Amino acid sequence: MTAYVEKGDIYFFYRPKIDAEKIQELDDIQRLYLVLAPEKKDTARLFLVGKKRLPEIPRGKSKSTQREWMMNDLTAKPKDIGEALVPLEYETKTRGEQEQGEAIPVGEGRYAIFEDDSGTRLAYRLSSPETIGKAQKTLGILAEASFVISVRNPAVDVPGFPQAKPDYPKHLKDKFADKRWIAIDDPKLLDYADAQFLLIGAHDDLSEEDVKITGKANLFKTLGLTKREWPTDALESGKLVEPQMQPGSEAPAGDRSKGGERGGKAASQTDSAAGIAKALKGVDFPCGKSELLKQAKANDAAKEIVEVLDEVSDRQFETMADVQKAVGEVR
After folding, report:
1. Rounded distance, CA 291 to CA 2, Å?
2. Scanning 4, 141, 168, 293, which has the fewest C-beta atoms within 10 Å of its C-beta?
3. Which tens digit of pLDDT belongs to each residue from 120-162?
4. Separation of alpha carbons 231 and 239, rounded Å
């Protein structure tokens, strides 16, 4: 009998490289993002996928030698995840102010994480696009698929994986003991920034799995994005497309203090997750409250960001996730 760990919506986005004028192949893409929005929770997770594509699953075969890592980049309210996907503006030492286009939606569907005799599996089924196109094929996204998924012990170095480590609490660290990888029997293992996971292709046909995936995802509603303002060709017809939005565009009617629904430059100047992260870009962890304030001021952060950072308790912050948690406590 299948034991479900969690179910929810799954979304895929790609962010093109800054200097890519035309998106035609994998080399034109900088990041592949995978978003998990669990049912009955007020948070979602944004993951980076290594090598910018999912591991290949040979058609009709139940085993694959292809494997890939993914890493938690942010756990936050779904609308804060949406803000993290808008166009970016930032300063560079050699090229001055740079712009990077929005992350482009390329798939939405439903997922389940469940346990079987071999460990834990992540399975998904897309609802959009209806037919897999060039964009999905380039990124290794199938209409439906399952992967063996396990979580890396942060105390053990693994060649080819990022050096960053999650700040797991003791009860989660104790699950690893001396193992390099463990199954995901607790969804909280997915929640911590820098947590890393191994994906190994299992099946390209969910009839081979004892799993039920039902329902329909709503990417734009869940992430608080305005559909008419985002490029949707990749999501609807499978085409590789270029960004079309501009950083700093005027936000639509709504709560302008939070950047409205569009986000962009407006959102990055507020005390949202995206705004805090941008304001503290370049800070060296671990650090204290005074270092946070110094970095925010050096980055010309908006007044409301400096004010909210000034309100957090004075403690040592190990990661950006610690800062976001502290900010949440004073909002």
Report:
1. 48
2. 4
3. 999 999 999 999 999 999 999 999 999 999 999 999 999 999 9
4. 10
Distances (CA, A) of 267 to 68, 74, 99: 32, 16, 15
Distance between CA atoms of residues 263 and 244, nearest Å: 14
SS3 of 91, please?
A: strand
Amino acid at 168: Y
Residue in the structure block whose two tokens are 């591991």: 55
SS3 175: coil
Beta carbons within 10 angstroms of residue 219's beta carbon: 26
- For residue 124, list its beta bridge partners: 111, 145
* pLDDT given at position 257: 28
What pLDDT was estimated at residue 250?
32
Beta strands in the chain (DSSP E): 3-16, 29-38, 44-49, 67-76, 88-92, 96-100, 104-116, 119-128, 144-152, 181-182, 196-203
| Per-residue pLDDT at 213 | 96
Tokens matching residue 6 = 């969690």
In this predicted model, what pLDDT tens digit does every residue of 207-217 receive, in sequence order? 999 999 999 99
What residues have CB less than 8 Å from 18, skipping those under 6 apart?
Answer: 30, 98, 99, 100
For 154, the 3-state DSSP assignment is coil
CA angle 232, 227, 192 (to 5 degrees): 90
Residue 74 near residue 45, CB atoms below 8 Å: yes
CA–CA dist 2, 198 (Å, integer): 21
Q: What angle (nearest 5°) sits at the alpha carbon of residue 33, between those of residues 308 and 15?
A: 90
- 309 touches 292 (CB < 8 A): yes
Model pLDDT, residue 118: 78
- pLDDT beneath 50, residues of the chain: 249-270
